[in-house]
Amino acid sequence: MGYALLDHSTDPPRILDCGIVETPRGVTAAERLLAIATALEHLIREYGPTAFAVERLYFNKNVRTAMAVAEARGVALLCAARGGLTVAEYTPQEVKLSVTGTGGADKKQVQRMLSAVLSLEAPITQDNVADAVAIALTHIRRAKWDSVVAAAT
Amino acid sequence: MGYALLDHSTDPPRILDCGIVETPRGVTAAERLLAIATALEHLIREYGPTAFAVERLYFNKNVRTAMAVAEARGVALLCAARGGLTVAEYTPQEVKLSVTGTGGADKKQVQRMLSAVLSLEAPITQDNVADAVAIALTHIRRAKWDSVVAAAT
């Protein structure tokens, strides 16, 4: 599971931390979920984020994988709720549209745009990490847009 | 989400508690999962169970429902891991086979068998609660069987 913490007070937003929540191999589903919860709670304590954005997934070719992903999503949502974070969900299409301007962009296009928009010295090449940064960026942009709209109306 | 706590030290096992984890209506997914975790943690503290058995589901006609169920399952598995409980998973077919003797039994047959096997004064008519009792009973039977096999070999 990829994660990213972005500071939205700078322009462009700054990546504070990102990576993969490592889960031990050859463990049970419950142990895997415990490792995810422990890691997320550690990140929430360390950085004190105020918002949590996560991918919304409806379909997956592999039902078994889809169930495992949904279980991890449930645990992540629980950690966010316990941490008092506001929660937002975005579909992959919304994320691609927000980051690249087109909902049909591929992963490489998203990664190139992240490098450009966030002025990264090195591109993010791990798919799960790039996805997490893209989702966080999408949420920052949506929140800014919402506040501009609210201020204007 | 139905739950049931059974005492396996008596014969037949005795239902200590069973019911539905109530979740508030019109709340977000994160708030729903938080309510489930809080309720399960309360039950684990109150009864101090040693084992946790849950339904294993691979398919659901409604993908949206399947995802919500898997998220709740993830939270339940996390609570079990945090509580130090051993975790077991059973498919609906395994549960029906264990309780009624046939994997194709319908819900009414399962409910009638639960009444008979557990010497219930009143039948359990709520599907989710009956499912939870049936899963717990399946686990007790499986654990007894395993211990008999282990003692004999």
Describe this structure as you would to a colleague.
Two copies of one chain form a homodimer. Chain A is of the alpha+beta class. Chain A has a single domain, classed as Nucleotidyltransferase, domain 5, CATH 3.30.420.10. Chain A has helices at residues 29-47, 63-82, 92-100, 107-117, 127-152, and strands at 2-7, 14-20, 51-55, 86-90. A two-stranded antiparallel ribbon of chain A has the order 1-2. Chain A starts with a strand and ends with a helix. The A-B interface holds A 28-31, 33-34, 37, 57-59, 63-64, 66-67, 70-75, 77-78, 80-82, 87, 89 and B 28-31, 33-34, 37, 57-59, 63-64, 66-67, 70-75, 77-78, 80-82, 87, 89.
Element layout with pairings:
The structure is a homodimer of 153-residue chains.
Chain A: E1 2-7, E2 14-20, H1 29-47, E3 51-55, H2 63-82, E4 86-90, H3 92-100, H4 107-117, H5 127-152
Parallel strand pairs in A: 3-4
Antiparallel strand pairs in A: 1-2
In brief:
The structure is a homodimer of 153-residue chains. Chain A has 153 residues and is α+β, with helices and mostly antiparallel strands. Chain A has 5 helices and 4 strands.
